[in-house]
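agent> call fold_tool(seq_1)
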Amino acid sequence: MLQQQLQAMLALQDDINTLVNDNWREQNFAWYRAIWVESAELLDHYGWKWWKKQLPDMEQVKLELVDIWHFGLSLELQQGAPEVVAENMRQQLAALDPVSGDFKEDLEAFTLNTLSSKQFDLVGFAQLMIDCDMSFEDLYRRYVGKNVLNRFRQDHGYKDGSYKKLWQGREDNEHLAEIVQSLDSTAESFSTELYGALKTRYPG
């Protein structure tokens, strides 16, 4: 199941990257820099200021982790064939000892590894998931949902500004969350069913 889900997410990431730029692999985009910036945003949502009262906004933390995952998958895809990459990722995740740590310190270690290697620190990322009690199933559901919505937006005029973000008085993200809950995320057709459900609701 894990191998299948990793391959599915790598395929979806390749598709969305290709939609934005046909030759994205040759462009050598600074994915690591995007991860670094997203990590700073993530820390703001978690809270780090000692001079004011702050409570972690764990929903936003998890959303930021999903955004980082997009960039991490893009880096992983530059390492070789998707099937080989998925197997390497599966082995690294399987070897991880699921012990919760200090989220802020683990985030700093993850960011440092990212900046020094300019690669994706998969083990460090998995540790952050453990720290905030985020399961791989949750990551998968959230990632596929966000990826499919991004593709749907691109297909319906996001670039030229004709895309409608409000549907029947609600944002597309709200419709997405509702649809995801109604579908079987373990099905191989999860992403295509999700896209079809968005299309059915879209007023354009």
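agent> call fold_tool(seq_2)
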Amino acid sequence: MQIENILNHLRDRTPALMGHKYFKRSSVLIPLVELNGETHILFEVRSKNLRSQPGDVCFPGGRADQDDKHPSHTAIRETTEELGISEQDISDPIPLDYVVNDLGRIIYPFIGRLKSIENIQPSPDEVDHIFTVPLSFFLENEPKKYKVHLEIKPEDNFPYHLIVGGEDYEWHIRTMEELFYQYDDNTIWGLTAKVLNHFISLIDTKKDR
């Protein structure tokens, strides 16, 4: 193939995330609701019967379906299914920064307004119970931060003979930061805490001074 043909083939291409076609896509919604004149954030506690992260605190959300036209449709659909409400009970979905992780997932977070919590009937298959936290709590309290060191362990048949250094190759040990919020008896951590902290950073006007 000639260089000119290669350049012409790629000239008008729009760059994207490498391998994005193979990533699993999910969306979550940070539900905002007004209670007694104060803004609250609604959380779910995952059913104890779920295989993945039973009993963890999370936002409504889940895996995208082929019929979802946009990540916001995924967030709204999953929220209606998990909370037992209608699409009309959710308004103003606004996207936040999306998350890409090494497990081959892209997570699209949104905020949205719930009309009320009176009509909520959580799906028992997915949700143990719900609770709300005043937004002011997160504006006034920073999360606690802890380091997690990730171990690199190549598989037994890893071709050490093909790399400089062989079995003595110096792998760079990665460290990730986990955030924890504690409210009453509820622990909010993991991806939920990271998305929440990102949202708070966007609206916390004190940090702009």
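agent> summarizing second result for user.
The chain has one domain: 20-203. The first helix runs from residue 3 to 10.
agent> awaiting next instruction.
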